[in-house]
């Protein structure tokens, strides 16, 4: 008895491959038994006797069952949908064949700049002067483009709408008008046809001016709402639902989000503070005005830069409300920083590695503040967070009109760059955004709360919460 028990204990365990082969043979036996029904159990015994031959049909049966579950909509999305979820590669403008195809499809006239900057050849570099007149002349020829979308595109080119939130709101309101007038063509489904329509509108707006990261998030939200519309809804009910979804996104994610940011950020302002801001940010302006309404005594330093000089508009609005302000240019920021107690800046987007993507010059201001041990507080809505990772301002950016930096407003005598386009080997670079590393950020204030020094680690958490909220609103 002892010898038998010891031999049982010493019996080698089957390997993983052997166990898998045995399981597959048993599955094949069950499948064969079900197939033959009441004819007998002979097939099952023969399948058990020859497990090696039963392996191949089992694999086919397993793959067929997996495919069937995918078609029925199991736990995992089908392969086709998984391919759709993958982000499309951005168009590299140094690829001549792809650029030529994009030009043929484009509505807006794209004339390449003569003096292109070599380092930024992968970004679009077009002549800005001819786009607006050409697009205005095509008004009656652009039947696929809705008039509301066309109007917003003209405002993008002319610069009448330029802020990140303003551009996003204008785009969504134009989509509301387009959906209101939309009618489903015969023999087509609302979901697919409307998604294609929205895609054509997005392409048109992107030709007028490259879309911001936050606008991409809003477009993705709208397309997901279209895809989740129940098939039982009528056309009018579906359009009403989408109209209310867009309105809710504007009110909750942009307007109310700014109000929540103000409540959080105003707690960081104390009496006697000297607060510095760069350019013009709607959220930062609301923070200053609310702190002034609460009776807090502080001074605002507005740092500005050419060519747009947006800080001048902010200066006028704050002075009209009775705030004590100082105005200076970015070349004097290291001098004025010794008086500053806190820096408040806005952001175009915040990436998943904590990089702040904002107006060009923001990184310089933050670096000077960091060197002077002045805390930098970034005010940014959660819908502007993005899962992209970016380490520099070269791989992805937007190039503005180079002519605007060759002219100085109010200074006719400064004409050294007149006719610069005719000078060989001279290129002017007008970057719109820069990327600020998270090392220079002390705090990020969002509508979900305040993120401290470990902003880079908590940015993915904000992204997850934003995606969860989007799903919850459906």
From TrEMBL:
Region of interest (Disordered), residue spans: 1-110
Record's signal peptide: none
Compositional bias ranges of the Low complexity kind: 23-35
SUPFAM superfamilies: NagB/RpiA/CoA transferase-like (SSF100950)
InterPro entries reported for this sequence: IF-2B-related (IPR000649), IF_2B-like_C (IPR042529), NagB/RpiA_transferase-like (IPR037171)
Annotated Basic and acidic residues bias: 69-100
Family the entry assigns: Belongs to the eIF-2B alpha/beta/delta subunits family.
Protein name per UniProt: Translation initiation factor eIF2B subunit delta
């Amino acid at each position: 008895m002892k010898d038998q028990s010891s031999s049982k204990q010493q019996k080698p365990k089957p390997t993983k491959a052997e166990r898998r082969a045995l399981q597959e043979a048993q599955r094949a036996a069950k499948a064969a038994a079900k197939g033959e029904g009441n004819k007998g159990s002979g097939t099952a015994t023969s399948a058990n006797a020859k497990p090696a031959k039963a392996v191949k049909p089992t694999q086919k049966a397993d793959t067929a069952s997996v495919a069937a579950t995918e078609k029925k909509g199991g736990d995992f999305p089908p392969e086709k949908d998984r391919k759709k979820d993958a982000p499309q590669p951005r168009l590299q403008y140094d690829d001549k064949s792809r650029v030529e195809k994009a030009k043929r499809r484009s509505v807006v006239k794209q004339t390449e700049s003569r003096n292109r900057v070599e380092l930024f050849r992968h970004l679009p570099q077009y002549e800005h002067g001819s786009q607006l007149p050409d697009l205005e002349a095509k008004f009656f020829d652009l039947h696929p483009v809705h008039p509301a979308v066309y109007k917003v595109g003209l405002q993008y080119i002319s610069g009448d709408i330029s802020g990140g939130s303003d551009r996003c709101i204008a785009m969504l309101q134009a989509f509301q008008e387009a959906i209101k007038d939309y009618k489903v063509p015969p023999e087509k489904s609302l979901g697919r046809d409307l998604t294609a329509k929205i895609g054509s509108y997005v392409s048109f707006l992107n030709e007028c001016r490259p879309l911001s990261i936050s606008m991409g998030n809003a477009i993705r939200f709208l397309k997901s709402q279209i895809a989740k519309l129940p098939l039982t809804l009528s056309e009018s009910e579906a359009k009403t639902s989408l109209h209310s979804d867009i309105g809710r996104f504007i009110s909750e994610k942009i307007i109310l989000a700014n109000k929540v940011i103000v409540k959080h950020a105003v707690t960081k302002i104390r009496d006697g503070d000297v607060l510095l801001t760069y350019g013009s940010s709607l959220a930062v302006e609301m923070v200053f005005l609310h702190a002034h309404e609460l009776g807090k005594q502080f001074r605002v330093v507005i740092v500005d830069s050419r060519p747009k000089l947006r800080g001048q508009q902010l200066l006028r609005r704050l002075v009209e409300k009775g705030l004590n302000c100082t105005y200076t240019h970015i070349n004097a920021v290291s001098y004025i920083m010794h008086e500053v107690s806190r820096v408040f800046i806005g952001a175009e987007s915040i990436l998943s590695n904590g990089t702040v993507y904002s107006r060009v010059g923001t990184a310089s201001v933050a670096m000077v503040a960091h060197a002077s041990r002045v805390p930098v507080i970034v005010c940014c809505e959660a819908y502007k967070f993005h899962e992209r990772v970016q380490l520099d301002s070269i791989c992805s950016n937007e190039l503005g009109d180079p002519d605007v930096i060759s002219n100085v407003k109010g200074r006719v005598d400064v004409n050294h760059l007149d006719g610069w386009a005719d000078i060989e080997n001279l290129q002017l670079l007008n970057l719109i955004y820069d990327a600020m590393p998270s090392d220079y950020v002390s705090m990020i204030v969002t509508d979900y709360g305040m993120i401290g020094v470990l902003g880079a680690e908590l940015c993915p958490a904000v992204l997850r919460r934003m995606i969860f909220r989007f799903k919850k609103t459906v």
